[in-house]
Design goal:
With about 230 residues, this protein is an alpha/beta fold. It is about 35% helix and about 15% strand.
């Protein structure tokens, strides 16, 4: 157990809303990937569709998630990567050279709208099963390459219960002493955050990071809404 040198009254060993590793993001994800998997694969004979059972991914099947930043596209992709070790995930940074595109079943490409034209043509020509996070609808190019495409628009809604669970999971994962309680985001807090930020979960987490950081030496009850 780490010493209570920071957030002494809150029982936290770190700021819950700081940057997480990919593994932590996948572990704490509050998402279901069953619909995505069903669109691009099918269970091996006599096996259930998800939950560790083998999945056969269909070639030239693509699932694209379209939405603004901070709405959960990457979180869904990392959850798929965790569920299927055969998959490969690659993030395409802005204004930098395109990284090497790996192989995987499925192949998960984050910020797929940044694929250079030649690279995109090569990837689509491969027929690999794809899951794409993108700000641009790529369905026309995919269909020209012979793909069956399923499109989901991400971030159109966010319930109070969903947001509270997302945030409270992060708080619980930062618990210092597992025998002691930690602060919780109430439904009232979650409702206030949605009214302020809409469905921008990343914006909410950034705001909460600053709020929690400002209380690093605070000995009283932690507050989340200023």
């Amino acid at each position: 157990m780490q010493p209570a040198s920071r957030w002494p009254a809150a029982n936290l060993f770190r700021n819950p809303f700081g940057e997480l590793t990919r593994s932590e993001r996948a572990e704490l994800a509050v998402v279901s990937v069953a619909e995505i998997v069903a669109a691009i694969g099918e269970p091996t004979v006599d096996a259930p569709a998800i939950g560790g059972a083998p999945i056969t991914f269909r070639p030239r099947s693509a699932y694209q998630m379209i939405g603004e930043c901070g709405r959960g596209k990457t979180t869904r992709m990392l959850a798929i990567a965790k569920a299927f070790p055969s998959s490969s995930y690659v993030y395409l940074p802005e204004d930098q050279p395109c990284p090497t595109i790996p192989t995987g079943e499925p192949l998960l490409i984050d910020e797929a709208q940044r694929l250079p034209w030649r690279v995109r043509r090569k990837v689509f020509a491969s027929g690999a099963t794809l899951v794409l996070a993108t700000h641009q609808d790529l369905s026309s190019a995919l269909r020209r390459a012979g793909y069956t495409v399923t499109t989901e628009k991400i971030g159109l809604s966010l319930s109070v219960g969903q947001l509270a669970e997302i945030l409270n999971r992060r708080i619980a994962a930062s618990r210092r002493d597992h025998r002691q309680p930690v602060p919780r985001i109430s439904d009232e807090d979650a409702d206030a955050l949605i009214r302020r930020f809409g469905t921008d979960v990343r914006g909410i987490e950034s705001y909460l990071y600053d709020i929690v950081q400002s209380q690093v030496n605070h000995h009283g009850e932690m507050r989340f809404i200023d």
